[in-house]
Design brief:
Oligomer: single chain
Number of helices: 12
Helix content: 25-40%
Largest sheet: 5 strands, mixed
Radius of gyration: 23 Å
Number of strands: 16
Strand content: 25-35%
Distance between the termini: 50 Å
Order of helices and strands: HEEEEEEEEEHHHHHHHEEEHEHEHEEH
């Protein structure tokens, strides 16, 4: 996400973070896109940057200063796409109805990513039929689907680990670890990070990844849960230590999150099944509007303790644990230690059945 020789003479050089960065020029041609605004999200060192361009009949030109290759997000009006940019002249072509299949030339890292993606096509082919049936089958079939999807994710991790081991200094390898760190487990990500070479770790992205690992370690299995305090729906402060002695599902969610609202009935069923067996749920909302938060609690019929500081994504507990996507959960044992992470659907029910020895109805 470096070229030498004639490229250096053709590129302007800029100082970014105390080192020289070369200019990246992106030329886009997206058929059917029309005249719209497109945003490009990227990093300069530790700082996030946004580049905005106006397309003309789907065509646009954008320039940025990159010290090293990186994966950037291109936000079109209704869909996002991810591509690797690096110093030099890069062309992006495609059609507005297939933004997931953009053709990028001039980026060596993107070419590597395309080859790696092709090596996983057999997993894509297995995964799609499972998602088509997801949530439309019996409880037993749903558990089997979730277990198969979990196995496919395991195979993807193994393929990524092999690639990282074979290409420890590759920008793609670094990105594979970064992507996994978005919602993964600490031990798995630390293991992948250890496979990276010293040059990759020394890059700006490598340094951000190291900082991310420090945060993820806080939710490692066996780690004590943070004894936080946040207000309930009545504005009364509640401290997590009040739940010690129970199994607690800490559920990060928000009223505006569709997948969260879809998962709420499953959490409600788990709560009703095991609430008399030393189990409860504590919701932590990433809402910033109290009325929306309270309405969703009422509409979804959630009787457990609900907490929030109404700071949205800046919720202090979610930031402490580095929550980048919701729904997200932490399962805490009666001693206050984290014993599982990101359980949902039938995988949540399966775990609770293991703990309490009773099948959910």
């Amino acid at each position: 996400m470096k070229k030498t020789g004639t490229l250096l003479s053709a590129c302007l050089l800029y100082v970014v973070g105390g080192v020289y960065a070369q200019q990246t020029k992106v030329t886009g041609d997206i058929k059917g896109l029309g005249d719209v605004e497109v945003n490009i999200y990227y990093y300069e060192g530790k700082e996030t940057k946004t580049g905005t361009v106006q397309t003309k009949d789907g065509k646009f030109t954008w320039t940025g200063n990159f010290k090293e290759p990186q994966k950037v997000t291109i936000m079109f009006p209704r869909q996002a796409a991810w591509v690797f940019l690096e110093p030099g002249n890069i062309s992006i072509k495609g059609t507005a109805d297939s933004l997931y299949a953009l053709k990028v030339t001039g980026s060596k890292t993107q070419a590597e990513a395309d080859v790696f993606a092709a090596s996983q096509k057999f997993l894509d082919d297995q995964q799609m039929p499972l998602y088509e049936k997801y949530g439309k089958v019996s409880k037993e079939e749903q558990l089997a689907i979730e277990q198969k999807l979990d196995d496919i994710r395991r195979q993807r991790r193994e393929l990524a680990d092999k690639y990282i081991s074979a290409h420890p200094e590759s920008a793609l390898s670094l990105s594979l670890v970064t992507d996994r760190a978005s919602m993964g487990s600490y031990k798995d990500i630390q293991s992948a990070y250890n496979k990276l070479g010293p040059k990759a770790k020394a890059t700006a992205e490598g340094q951000r990844l190291a900082e991310r690992l420090t945060v993820l370690k806080r939710s490692d299995i066996g780690t004590p849960m943070l004894n936080f305090t946040q207000n309930d729906v009545d504005g009364k402060p509640v401290t997590f230590a009040a739940f010690k002695g129970k199994y607690v599902l800490v559920d990060f969610w928000a009223s505006w999150c569709g997948p969260c609202r879809a998962e709420n009935p499953n959490v409600l069923k788990a709560y009703n099944t095991y609430k008399d067996k030393n189990f409860t749920v504590v919701g932590i909302s990433l809402d910033d509007k109290g009325e929306n938060w309270k309405k969703a609690i009422k509409d979804d019929g959630m009787p457990w303790t609900q907490l929030s500081d109404l700071k949205g994504w800046k919720n202090e507990v979610s930031q402490y644990y580095g929550i980048n996507g919701i729904p997200s959960t932490l399962l805490v044992d009666p001693q206050g230690n984290i014993i599982a992470k990101d359980l949902r659907g039938e995988m949540l029910n399966h775990k609770l059945e293991e703990l309490f020895g009773k099948k959910a109805k």
